[in-house]
Amino acid sequence: MGRGGALDASLLVYFTNRTNGVSHPPYSSNNLAFHVGDNPLHVKQNRILTCKDLKIDPSRLISMDQIHSANIKIVSSSSTNPIPECDGILTNEPNLALLVQTADCTPVLIYSPDKRAIGALHVGRAGAFKKIVPKALEMMQNEFNVLVPSLHVWIGPAIQKCCYEIDKEVLEYAKRNFSSFLEGKRLDIAKIIIHQLTQYGVQNIHYDKTCTSCDKSYFSYRREKTTGRQGGIIMLKEDL
Ligand SMILES: [Zn+2]
After folding, report:
1. How many domains does the chain have?
2. CATH number for the domain that contains residue 49
3. If you write DSSP's letter for every residue of 32-90 in order, what string do you get?
């Protein structure tokens, strides 16, 4: 159903794919998103099964109403869930799982080993251009006093430059502002994210180069338009 990349037993980092769920086509099968037109009972069941596999309490899975913004919220178990109108959530609360939902956009998960704080970001082209990643690093520094260069960051499966040709209007903007990340008409979002992280001194970057548009075990908006969403999930694990 996906793969994990956690550093140690006190952290969960996981990226799901589209396998091992109960949803029917075109959402088959492990669609984690309620907003895409799938049967909500199937989505609920998929979330419960995923949580069971990952040993997460389903009532402590926090998701976002993602809007391609650079809005980031600090969340806790008392927050309204899903978190309205944002594309990034941060917490230092143990056993609270942060979920980012994607189908081509880049899921980014952040972990501070020293301050025990985490973040989950939805970084599409809009988020990369609006610098949601640098904003998250600054918020983690301000809110949790983390040492930014000590952070670990996972860049999950997403559409890669092989498949990400952009249209004329976006291309003109990218040529003016992000020209070094273009190859012809194709934009390299991961390269932008890695550049932004490196500017802040982050060295521990775990980059999954899987292209969601090439690899059919993932949901891809560009390939299928009407489709489900996979999840990037991060949680601080503590025995209660
Ligand atoms: Zn591709």
Report:
1. 1
2. 3.60.140.10
3. --STTSS-HHHHHHHHHHHHHHHT--GGGEE-B---SS--EEE--TTS-SSBSS-SEEE
The Å distance, Cα 129 to ligand 1 centre, comes to 21
Q: What is the rounded CA–CA span in Å between residue 16 and residue 93?
A: 22
Dihedral sign computed on CA atoms, order 67, 71, 72, 78: negative
Using the mean position of ligand 1's atoms as its centre, give its distance from the Cα of residue 69 in Å. Answer: 24
pTM score: 0.97
Domain holding 109, by residue range, is 2-236
**pLDDT digit string (tens) for 45-100?**
999 999 999 999 999 999 999 999 999 999 999 999 999 999 999 999 999 999 99
Q: How far is the CA of 75 from the centre of ligand 1 (A)?
A: 34
